[in-house]
Amino acid sequence: MLERIVDGRTDLVFDYVAAGHPSTTTDRHGTSLLQWCAYHGDVSAIRFLLAQGASLDELGETVASVEPLSMATGNSVSS
Predict the structure, then answer these.
(1) CA 14 → CA 39, 74, 79, distances in Å?
(2) How many C-beta atoms surround the C-beta of residue 32 within 10 A?
(3) 63 in a domain, yes or no?
(4) If pLDDT is split at 50, 70 and 90, which confidence band does 77 have?
(5) Residue 77: DSSP 8-state
(6) Within a domain: residue 79?
(7) CA neighbor of 37 nearest in space, from 72, 6, 70, 16
(8) Which residues pair with residue 26 across a beta bridge?
């Protein structure tokens, strides 16, 4: 099931953790479930993993500590 999550089936994270696997599981390369869910943009899975004990620290220093541009510069960001 882990390979399917890595391939983008992040909806399976809920079943994977329910089956007894830790929310902090990593693949053979050391990439965590949280990192894969962030890579694939699955906010629901990210929130679930955080509620189950995963940490934003798993995303790395750069991602976890970046301030939005508007906060860092005092300017508003428009698209």
Answers:
(1) 17, 38, 34
(2) 20
(3) yes
(4) very low
(5) P
(6) no
(7) 6
(8) 32
